TrEMBL record:
It comes from Chryseobacterium jejuense. It comes from the Bacteria. NCBIfam families: Por_Secre_tail. InterPro entries: Secre_tail. This is Por secretion system C-terminal sorting domain. Residues 160-218 form the Secretion system C-terminal sorting domain. Residues 1-17 form the signal peptide. It holds the Pfam family Por_Secre_tail. Keywords: Signal.
Length: 228
């Protein structure tokens, strides 16, 4: 990344198991998507992701060209979101966000609903509007999902049923749904598709899952369900 002012990100989701989509920090990066592809596995069995192509040609708003990388820092036991120092290299990268509160036993990084991605304001000058949340960013694809233990099957007027379920989940109370994702108990994305009030889960193996629904207004609703 060519400018110290760096970042603002927003993760946007992808159904690909080895791709992360991000969209956020619009003050610095404008409203655009960044696609990270898995490029390898480190010595600690953690996946490494980079925006591609890595050739100093990825535009990032008015900041010029930027490349980004998500990788595990074993010395500090945390995941890091890094910006290149120029020309697409990461010899001395800029730290944009870090997350040490997700499920660090997994090989994939936390999403913006798992643990806390903390903004490194020393680099961003606070231009990314604070830590990553579903309000200021989207981050989907090969990332950890929300913790299963804190989800509810009923939120206000929104309901999912039946639960447990064999074939189809019915959703009521959402009129502006945009996307929906299903995560397994380990936080891995299993399914991602355009919102529909009827969700086919017949191909899932029995167990616990989380259904995440994102609205056109960028609100997020999460529900735990059991597949029979």
């Amino acid at each position: 990344m060519k400018i110290l002012y760096l970042l603002c990100l927003a993760f946007v989701g992808s159904a690909s198991a080895q791709t992360i989509n991000f969209n956020g920090c619009h003050n610095l990066f404008e409203n655009q998507n960044f696609i990270f592809n898995k490029t390898g596995i480190d010595a600690f069995n953690k996946n490494i992701y980079m925006t591609t192509p890595i050739n100093d040609q990825q535009p990032c708003g008015g900041l010029g060209n930027c490349e980004f990388k998500i990788q595990w820092n074993n010395a500090l036991t945390r995941w890091e979101f890094l910006g290149d120092e120029g020309n697409g290299t990461f010899t001395a990268p800029y730290l944009i966000y870090y997350n040490s509160t997700g499920n660090n036993s997994l090989s994939i990084p936390p999403g913006n609903t798992s643990g806390t991605w903390i903004e490194n304001t020393t680099v961003t000058n606070g231009e990314c509007n604070g830590n990553l949340t579903v309000v200021n960013s989207t981050m989907t694809g090969d990332v950890q999902g929300p913790a299963l233990g804190i989800q509810e099957v009923y939120k206000g007027r929104i309901q999912i049923f039946p639960n447990p379920v064999s074939d189809y989940i019915q959703i009521s109370g959402i009129n502006d749904g945009k996307m929906m994702q299903i995560y397994n108990i380990d936080g891995r994305l299993i399914k991602s598709e355009i919102f529909d009030s009827k969700v086919d889960v017949s191909q899932l193996i029995p167990g616990a899952y989380v259904l995440k629904i994102t609205t056109r207004g960028f609100q997020s609703h999460e529900f735990k369900f059991m597949k029979k």
